[in-house]
Amino acid sequence: MTLETCCAPDDLMTPAAALDALRQRVAPVAGTEPRPLMAARGTVLAESITAPHALPAWDNSAMDGWAVRAADTAGAESVTLPVADRVAAGHPRAEPVPPGHAVRIFTGAPVPDGVDAVVMQEHCTADDDGGRVTVPGGVAAGTNVRHAGEDVAAGATVLAQGTRLDARALALAAAVGCDRLLVRRPVQVAVFSTGDEVREPGEPLPDGGLYDANRYMLMGLLDRPDLAVADLGILPDAPKALEGALHDAALSYDVVITSGGVSLGEEDHVRAAVEGLGGLHFWRLAVKPGKPVALGHVGGAAFLGLPGNPVAALVTFLLMGRPLLAGLAGAAVTEPPRYTLPAAFTFDKKAGRREFLRARLADGGRTVERAGPEGSALLGSLVTCDGLVDLAPETTAVAPGDPVPFLPFAEVLP
Q1: In this predicted structure, what is the pLDDT of residue 59?
Q2: pTM of the model as a whole
Q3: Are 86 and 129 in contact (CB under 8 A)?
Q4: What is the pLDDT of residues 44-76, one digit of tens each?
Q5: CB 238 within 8 A of CB 261
Q6: Domain 339-411 belongs in CATH node 2.40.340.10
Q7: What's the topology of domain 60-146?
Q8: For the residues of 294-342, what is the DSSP string, one character each?
């Protein structure tokens, strides 16, 4: 973790400034490992891959039909040619096709020397014995031919270092002959919840107690092949216990994520423990919900302290946790994508903070409407919404029809 202090810890920081700090200061964790293709899915590529050969490696047919020399079809409505051969995928013709001849050819088959176009079979008429075929006149050279190297040139970079390897990337790696890929080792992540009132689901619930939803939400968000996650349970509101647990976790993990205990209350001890063991780079964001979020380090491990309210924890994880983990994994540090949609609601807000509203798609996905109450502890409306409307700090009102940025959960939730 190489994230240096970027501002005074008591500053209220904008998410854009915080993300800038991450981009400039977070470095990937050390360590790489070779993996077979399928075992590499979801991890981050540690070295760029270049194509050892062109893709495709040879001219081939884009469809079933007859391969002809374009010059043989010039100046006529149609032309009848003798069929010299039949060429299927995986069975190239060794000899050039003589002038004035056609070749029966199938999709993916190499285009033989001596012909330079393919006519769709629907546009041709073959004799019953297949010895001759009539094709339209005026065929252009290159018609229905996939040319060698038109997808990837030999020596070109096909996958850059830092690429997160999804199914598309695996397909491209396989297409240029890779059976193993060098990837970043998974980021080691420790997850805690905090609070004397927090209980494990299934346990008896005392007066004033609540079940731990945040830890399970975070474990679900962190269930990715580029992360190795350890559930370290619930920490009490006890300074010594918090400090000891954070110290021990920092010895074994690349990043420690907690929820709760980073606000200003007398029982919020996480902030002090982190400052004693390492340092805070910022601890308040100009967002709603989610102002009390802390980024720092404990020993050599990164630290992310999320708010205790579950909706605030989710919003701040999406804003800060995802890019932090991406940077540690060696991938690009980016914000989640937004799509602009017309609002189907009215809303007033104070200027000064970015505000996130729970929202669902309406009118067949053409507009977005509010999904229910906005309290940062209310999970019910979080489950029934499709994403978040992201209102800029300067926005003070939304009226029906106004364009608003919409962050769909389908883009960011596993």
Answers
A1: 97
A2: 0.86
A3: no
A4: 999 999 999 999 999 999 999 999 999 999 999
A5: no
A6: yes
A7: Molybdopterin biosynthesis moeA protein; domain 3 (2.170.190)
A8: EEEEETTEEEEEE-SSHHHHHHHIIIIIHHHHHHHHTS---PPP-EEEE
